[in-house]
Amino acid sequence: MSLQGSADEVRAAPLLGRTFWLVPLPVLAFMVCQFVGWTLAPALTHISVPLDVAEGYAWGREWVIATYKHPALPSWLLEGSRVLTGAIGWPAYVISQLFVMATFLIVYTLGNDLLGRRRAIAGTLLLAGVAFFAWPTVEFNHNIAKLPMAAALPLTLWRAVERRSLGWWLLFGITAGIGLYAKLSTLLLLAILALWMLWDAKARAQILTLGPWLAAATTILISLPLLDWLVRHNFAPLAYAAARTHEASAGYPQFFADVALNVAGLFALMAIAGLLLRKRAPAPADGGDQKPDARIVSFLAIITLGPLMVATTGALLTGSGLKASWGNSMLSYAGMFAVAGLNLRVTDDAIRRLAIAAIAITIVTPLAYGVAVVVDPRKSAPTRVNWPQAEISRRMVEIWERETKAPLRIVAGYFWVPDIITLTAPTKPSVLTGRSLADSPWITPARLAREGALLVWDGSPNNPPRILASLVQGREIRQERFTAERLPKGREIVINYAILRPAPID
């Protein structure tokens, strides 16, 4: 069977074709090991949830469209899981790995369209060597929520163009709309894909047809509530992103070194599987030894390298810093790009070795992570997932109730400490956080005066976060000390607090 024949067969498949659901055994085994390993490792070792998860739970109970940082899709999912299961922690790890598994499945599907079955399997398995798909995935945040959308946008666009299908154009628009609720940087990928459409002759010929306009209208319709929120809140997430950009300290050498380290394992896996050897091998029956079409290679290059190029160019033009994490969620097609760009010869033996190595990584790495969490090599203070969250929440709630004789409704501070206090507090208090009161619009000045607030922070008692400065002024600042199971002997976690008393009840 020729490569063209394989592509024709895929194009003949229905909307949810067999290659989407009938996952090859090596890819399926890899996905299952990823899910099991990276769900159990944090679920069995974390005492508290990671930083972004705690923040997501705190925002989720407000059911807002967005916050001053990001749109709220991850928060909705976290709060929804809490409502459905009555639990915190493990549902977040499950959700995160479901998003990762969906990403792998989508990547394989597009790879099968572009490169044929063998190379698609190899390109997917190579993602075991991308560091972003390991330790960072224990923390369900906007980067993880964006993953399947960032992978599905190229798939739906490619099929829409290749098949001239209104159904795929509609799916592209739906994916784009949902992706914006995951993270606004989805706009960056959409801009890159729009440039590809202008550059690619086949895509360019369809710009004035109904499909692209249907996709654009669908995206706008889905994102209208988000756009309305952004306008009413002065595009706060964009201002936050701009501020973070200027705060980023990494220069070009460090940025590219971080990116190289992130994908170094991918090249190690290729070497282990023998994919880098130039020795002639029998040509696989599905055309796996044929050189991929230049149009396919360029498409994979654009969707893989485009965001990194835009990030570095933007930093150069604005004089801002760089963070390697900005391009991580665009690395889903790094394996597929490597297979196509290097014209790798993928044999059954190479797939077997690659599958064994990928599965071994997804078993060993979560075990190593679990050991690192339990041992906790940090000597000055425990990592956040080792904080005694439940004890902190229980004791701080008791202090509030003893002092005020009122239920705790608001906890104020700049991330993490207020988040973990509200996480298991029985009254499910709201969090007042951010840089000013405007960053928590669910808490009005009238509500703050009526319900009062527990003001909390760690670090120096004389240096409260900016949002608390005026609230703390003139109030007694006290400290509560906590020991932690994995904290070095003699060390304590110290939380500073002050009480803004609620208005007396008439």
Write the layout of secondary structure elements.
Elements: H1 3-11, H2 18-21, H3 25-45, H4 51-60, H5 73-85, H6 90-115, H7 117-125, H8 142-163, H9 166-182, H10 186-199, H11 201-204, H12 210-232, H13 236-247, H14 252-272, H15 294-318, H16 334-341, H17 348-375, H18 389-404, E1 410-412, H19 417-423, E2 430-432, H20 445-451, E3 453-457, H21 469-472, E4 478-482, E5 493-500
Parallel strand pairs: 1-2, 1-3
Antiparallel strand pairs: 3-5, 4-5
Question: In words, what does this structure look like?
Answer:
- This protein is mainly α and 506 residues long.
- The chain has two domains: 3-13 and 23-46 and 89-372, no CATH class; 384-500, no CATH class.
- Helix content is 59%, strand content 5%.
- The protein has 21 helices and five strands.
- A five-stranded mixed sheet has the order 2-1-3-5-4.
- Helix 19 (417-423) links the parallel strand 1 (410-412) and strand 2.
- Helix 7 crosses helix 16 (334-341), helix 7 packs parallel to helix 17 and helix 8 packs parallel to helix 10 (186-199).
- It starts with a helix and ends in a 6-residue tail after the last strand.
Query: H/E element string?
Result: HHHHHHHHHHHHHHHHHHEHEHEHEE
Question: Runs with pLDDT <50, length 5+?
Answer: 1-20
Radius of gyration: 25 Å
Overall number of strands: 5
Number of helical segments with 4 or more residues: 21
Quick structural summary:
With 506 residues, the chain is mostly helical. It has helices spanning 3-11, 18-21, 25-45, 51-60, 73-85, 90-115, 117-125, 142-163, 166-182, 186-199, 201-204, 210-232, 236-247, 252-272, 294-318, 334-341, 348-375, 389-404, 417-423, 445-451, 469-472, and strands at residues 410-412, 430-432, 453-457, 478-482, 493-500. Strands 2-1-3-5-4 form a five-stranded mixed beta sheet.
